[in-house]
Amino acid sequence: MTPENTTPQAGATPAGRRRALRAIAIFEAAKGLAALAAGIGLLELLHHDIHRLALALLWRFHLDPALPYPTLLLHYADLLGAIDLRTLAPVALAYIAVRFLEAWGLWKEKTWAEWLGALSGALYIPLELAHLAHRPGAINAGVLLANVVIVGFLAFQLWIHRGHGRQVAAQAENKV
């Protein structure tokens, strides 16, 4: 009989599972920090003319506003200027809180955090597929692949927790 912490699990050793969960936790915390930094940056723009700031940035780097990328920057500056950031703030804070909560839960190996990560990650997959279809590229494909791997890993861990994995592990142990 083996000690409890070394009982074979389907797919990963306990140490490997812990490392994977902690890597995902760090990734989720990084997304939360990036959202926090973006939110602070947007708050800094609250009382400024964003279109004028974008034009000044283009002129500073001697870029022609009629070229495709500078035009895109001006387009998004206009969109950002039309958004009421005071209504966006609670949504951003909720997103940041969920990312940090998920990161903490995954770091502590909580089953509810695996559910949260699998479900919230799965919600993005159709959007990422549509984005990849609209703008194919290595970065978009990489983001989609990383999300699918994370969701797949978390879903597999949940499957193991529900007992289905114990049967697979027992069958593997019997073959040895």
Task: Please describe what this structure looks like.
With 176 residues, the chain is an all-alpha fold. Helices cover 80% and strands 0% of the residues. It has helices spanning 14-44, 50-60, 68-82, 85-107, 111-134, 138-161, 164-175. Helix 4 (85-107) crosses helix 5 (111-134).
Topology at a glance:
Blueprint: H1 14-44, H2 50-60, H3 68-82, H4 85-107, H5 111-134, H6 138-161, H7 164-175
Query: Any idea what the radius of gyration is?
Result: 22 Å
Straight-line N-to-C gap: 14 Å
Average pLDDT rating? 85
Beta-strand share of residues? under 5%
In helices, the fraction of residues equals over 70%
Global outline: elongated
Kindly state the number of beta strands. Answer: 0
The main pleated sheet reads as:
none
- Class of secondary structure makeup: mainly alpha
Separate helix tally:
7
Helix and strand element order: HHHHHHH
**Quaternary structure state of the chains depicted:** single chain
